[in-house]
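hey so u asked for the seq, here:
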Amino acid sequence: MALSMYQASVPIYIKMLNGLADCLKKAAAHYAEKKWDEASLLSYRLYPDMFHFTKQVQEATNHARNVVILTGQEPAKVEENEKSLAELIARVEQTVAFMQTLKPAQIDGTEEKIITRTRRDVSVDYSGVQFLLHRSMPNFCFHCATAYDILRHNGVAVGKRDYLGPN
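ran it, structure tokens below
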């Protein structure tokens, strides 16, 4: 049996988003227990030219929602105004809820569909499978991993099992 576009995307996004939500919940508990200000975590960057923690989580959810592009739709614009871990958790959970509305029939068969994306005034054409495997999924994983790395660097007790999400 061949792996379908749906199988290669939506369940993976959901699994890893659930892992991200669990990591965020552990961070909230850790910061509450230590009586630390969450703002220091939310604005933390691994390096000055990198996105801060909040933006890493926002970008992870944005890239997951971008799978809807395969259906011919543009992803809904979601405000990026989270100011707490609780709000970031809600954002991730809302993204999971959205992902759960997607059906295999919407995604499957889009392997050869041409997807044109423009960034910084440069348009690039991708096949559906290229868009998923060369743009959407790698960006999603990068931002999830960077958010995880920031949590670890700031003392939150999360591990590989947390990052990968529940089985």
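Strands lie at 114-119, 122-127. The helical segments are 10-34, 38-42, 53-65, 85-99, 104-107, 128-153, 160-164.
lmk if thats what u needed
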